[in-house]
Amino acid sequence: MRVPSRSPGQQPGPTVAATAPARRLPPAAGRRPAGAPDLAAYRAAVAELLVEVGALADAPSTTARQVLLDQRLREPAIAAVLDATSQGFVGARETLLLEMTRYQPNARSSAHDLTALVRIYLLSRIDVMWWRDSPTFLTDSQVNTSIDLVDLEWLRRRGLLAFRYQEQPAGVLSRGLRAVRRRLLPDATPRTAGLMFRRARREVVALLNDIGREFALATPPGTPPLWVTSLARSAEHQYRLRRLGYAAMVPSGHCLGWAADVEMAWFRRFGVRETLVDLLLARQEAGEINVVDEGQAWHLCLAPDARRRFRRAYEVEMGM
C-alpha cells in the first residue's frame, strides 16, 4: 500500500539569473541523522494502522477503534514521531482521538472517512515534528505583514513563478464572475476556492518552482503548469476552515509557513496525474519533502535538511 505520506519583505531585484532546474538530491540526502525518528518505518506503521482502522470504521466499533489506537500509537516507530512534535506523544494522541470523536463527513472535507482523517493527521505530524521550533502565524495580519514571506503576485507579474494559482474572490462581483467562468469553461481550472493568502516563504517558492519545472519537463507539450491551491495560512484562518467543515489539522505546517497544497485530481484529464504522483514521492524518498495524499490536492512540506539549498536557489533565481 503506497501512502504518501507566509509583509512583502525585501523584494527581489530586477535582475534574474537564468537557471536550470535544481539537481535531484543524491540518495545520501535522504539518510536520517543518528537518533532521528525513522520516517520510512513511521509511514509503514501508519499504513498498517490504516488497514485496521478501515476495518473498524463503523459506528459500533468506536470502543474497539480507541483500543486499537491506544495500542498502535505506542509502537516505537509511531511514538517516536509523535513524541518529537510540539504537543508531545500525549498531546498528539489526545488530539487525534478528539478529531475522531468530532468527525462528521461532508463534501468540503478532504477526509472523506475516518481512515482518511487518521491518515491525514498522522502523516502531517511529520511536518509538525520537523518545524516544531518555528513560530506559528497566529493571525491573518501576521501572515500579511511578515518579512519572512514574499508576495506571489509580485513574482508572477515578473514571470518568476513556474506554477500557477488563483486567489479567492474578494467580493460578490468577483464571486459571480468566477461562477460564470466555471459554467462556461467547467474544466479550464481546478475546482478550488483559491488562495486566501498569496504569500509564501522564499524556500517554499523555490521548491514549488523546482517541482514545476520538473513537472513541465516530464509531461507532454500543452500540459498546464503545476497548480498550487494553498500556502501559508494563519491559525486564525485554520480555525475558520475547521468551522466550515474542512479537515484543517492543528497544529499545521501551513501555519508555520513550510507547507503547500498542490492540485492533483484536475491533472487526470490531461493524463499526467501519475507523473506528478511519482515525482512527489521520489522527492519524499530523497528526504526533500513530506507528502500527504488529501485526495483532490496533495499536501507538501519542505524538510529542514533541504531548507538551505532552496534558500540559495531562490536567491540565485531572483538575482540576489
Structure characterization notes:
- This protein is α+β, with helices and mostly antiparallel strands and 320 residues long.
- The protein contains 13 helices and seven strands.
- The strands form two sheets. It has a five-stranded mixed β-sheet with strand order 2-4-5-7-6, sandwiched between helices.
- Strand 6 and strand 7 (297-302) form a beta hairpin.
- The chain is globular.
- Residues 1-30 have low confidence and may be disordered.
Arithmetic mean pLDDT: 86
How are the strands ordered across the major sheet?
Answer: 2-4-5-7-6
Instruction: Tell me what portion of residues adopts beta-strand conformation.
Output: 5-15%
Number of strands: 7
Biggest beta-sheet profile:
5 strands, mixed
Computed structural class: alpha+beta
Determine Rg (CA atoms, Å). 20 Å
Distance between the termini: 44 Å
Shape: globular
Q: What is the overall number of helices?
A: 13
The topology string of helices and strands comes to HHHHHHEHEHEHEHHEHEEH
Give helix % range.
40-55%
Low-confidence stretches: 1-30
